[in-house]
Amino acid sequence: MTPKISFRNVSKSFPLKGGDFLALDRVDLDIADREFVTVVGPSGCGKSTLMSMAAGLTEPGTGDILLDGAPVAGPGPDRGVIFQQYALFPWLTVRKNVEFGLKLMNLPQDERRKRAEHAIELVGLSDFADALPKTLSGGMKQRCAIARAYAVGPQVLLMDEPFGALDALTRVQLQDQLLDTWSRERRTVMFITHDVDEAVYLANRVVVMAARPGRIHRVIDVDLPYPRTEEVRLSPEFSRIRNEVWHSVYHQAPAA
Ligand SMILES: Nc1ncnc2c1ncn2[C@@H]1O[C@H](COP(=O)(O)OP(=O)(O)OP(=O)(O)O)[C@@H](O)[C@H]1O
Question: Which of 7, 21, 160 to mutate for ligand 1's pocket (most ligand atoms within 8 Å of CB)?
């Protein structure tokens, strides 16, 4: 079956004083339809660059990035992008923030309203639909940003450390909520995180990257059942996989 997203021999350099800096070196990765893939690796290994290329916001230097087998030519409503900073419009309510992305799709007003309500309900913010962002906690703001991405109905969610700024408890709650939505709506998810526990808890597979140059170091299967519960989180198998990921991230041999 055609992968949902493919990185084929993708390299990317950025110009620096004194020569080019190779940020990504020959990355090959296929992400299947409806798969949940997390990406971890040391700071600067190119995680965000890789995701930005899948989003169509950054062009690959060489190689191909394919979506359903066709080259990515730029951003599109088939991919929802969520960053660590909530990026909400402060003067718009939760509902208006969520509806905003739908305006660009030229949907009729009642369809926009319906889609926004559904997305707001999915993230558990219905009681706050008419609230302004400044009155929301960090976790609620991030849920609003997630609802905005959901509302457009993308087949792919590209999430760059979406829970990075949140406290540990809110983070765990949003992980569960994300998995709950994913298991019902089954979008393809590519999710960057610095948190090894989070990477294992969420994913079908964890991609471990290495730095200098940025590249894929290992891909580790997470053969744990869904739904991921506290029991799963506390299981010996979870610890074993977590330790394996941890070891691959923090004990990488330097590049040849
Ligand atoms: N626009 C740019 N111009 C020059 N260098 C860049 C640019 N974007 C990224 N880089 C460099 O490319 C490398 C990879 O950056 P990237 O942000 O993708 O890494 P990362 O793994 O997401 O890092 P972190 O975990 O710290 O967020 C870094 O060394 C960075 O300095």
Answer: 21
Looking at the domain that runs over 1-78+157-256, which CATH code has it been given? Answer: 3.40.50.300
Q: Which residue has the tokens 């526990």?
A: 197
Please tell me the distance from the alpha carbon of residue 151 to that of residue 163, in angstroms, as a whole number. 19
Q: List Cβ neighbours of 172 (8 Å cut-off, separation of 6 or more).
A: none
Tell me how far the alpha carbon of residue 233 lies from the centroid of ligand 1, in angstroms: 31
Name the band, by pLDDT with cuts 50, 70 and 90, for residue 87: confident
CA distance linking residue 210 with residue 219, whole number of Å: 12
Q: Measured on CA atoms in the order 93, 95, 100, 103, is the torsion positive or negative?
A: negative
Of 49, 57, 83, 198, which is best to mutate to test ligand 1, by the most ligand atoms within 8 angstroms of its C-beta? 49
What is the maximum alpha-carbon separation in the chain? 58
What is the distance between the alpha carbons of residues 78 and 85, in angstroms, rounded to a whole number? Answer: 21
- Which tens digit of pLDDT belongs to each residue from 149-161? 888 889 999 999 9
Q: Where are the domains of the chain?
A: 1-78+157-256, 85-153
The model's pLDDT over 28-80, given as tens digits with 9 standing for 90+, comes to 999 999 999 999 999 999 999 999 999 999 998 999 999 999 999 999 889 99
Q: Which atom of ligand 1 is nearest to the CA of 209?
A: 21
Q: What's the whole-model pTM score? A: 0.91
